[in-house]
Specification:
The protein has 2 domains: 110 residues, no CATH class; 46 residues, no CATH class. Helix content is 10%, strand content 28%. It has 3 helices and 11 strands. The strands form 2 sheets. Strands 1-4-3-2-11-5-8-9-10 form a 9-stranded mixed β-sheet, with no helix packed on it. Strands 6-7 form a two-stranded antiparallel ribbon. The two termini are 41 Å apart.
Length: 179
């Protein structure tokens, strides 16, 4: 994702094995990543993207620069409840969290891995939202019902029992006959 302060800058998504450099973009007061060959275009990372820096990361502090003492990081967003602040951050292997806007410019990193399955709840059909395990089965992640996030108890319904009770077809997990 690219932070709200980079909406006026041309951007594109990151690619695996791409080299990035921390940059301050013209006509903005913020920093982010760009390809060294095209420094005017912001390279946006999705939450969960893993990157490795060439050297220990340095960040601007209140008065002095600080050394994070780590090279491996995972991109994430923080403080999403506050609209008018920077959200894009890196969580390092040592537990430190640094906003992208605090990175010292000129640091190089390589994209190691992108997140596996990006999707939002809005893109999920309403019929699947009632049974979260349907998404896991369709994605091939599980053949078992998931734990309910509201009660922390396993769902008591299987695809077959849901189909019988509600009178409609639900996708069957692997190994179970369709209804």
């Amino acid at each position: 994702m690219c932070d709200y302060s980079l909406h006026a800058v041309a951007s594109r998504p990151a690619e695996v094995a791409e080299t990035l450099v921390s940059t301050k973009f013209r006509s903005t007061t913020t920093r982010g990543f760009a390809n060294p060959d095209d420094p005017a275009v912001a390279v946006c990372l999705r939450p969960g993207t893993e990157i490795a820096f060439e050297a220990d990361v340095r960040a601007d502090g209140f008065l002095f620069r600080r050394n994070v003492r780590a090279r491996l990081a995972r991109f994430r967003q923080i403080g999403l409840d506050y609209a008018a602040q920077h959200h894009d951050a890196l969580e390092f292997s040592n537990g430190a969290i640094v906003l992208l806007s605090e990175l010292v410019t000129g640091q190089r990193a390589v994209v190691l891995q992108l997140p596996a399955h990006p999707f939002s709840v809005a893109s999920v059909p309403i019929s699947c939202r009632a049974f979260p395990w349907v998404l896991a089965v369709q994605a091939g992640l599980s053949s078992q019902p998931s734990v309910s996030s509201s009660t922390n108890e396993p769902h008591s319904m299987t695809p077959a029992s849901a189909s019988r009770e509600y009178g409609r077809h639900s996708p069957s997990p692997p190994g179970e006959a369709p209804v």
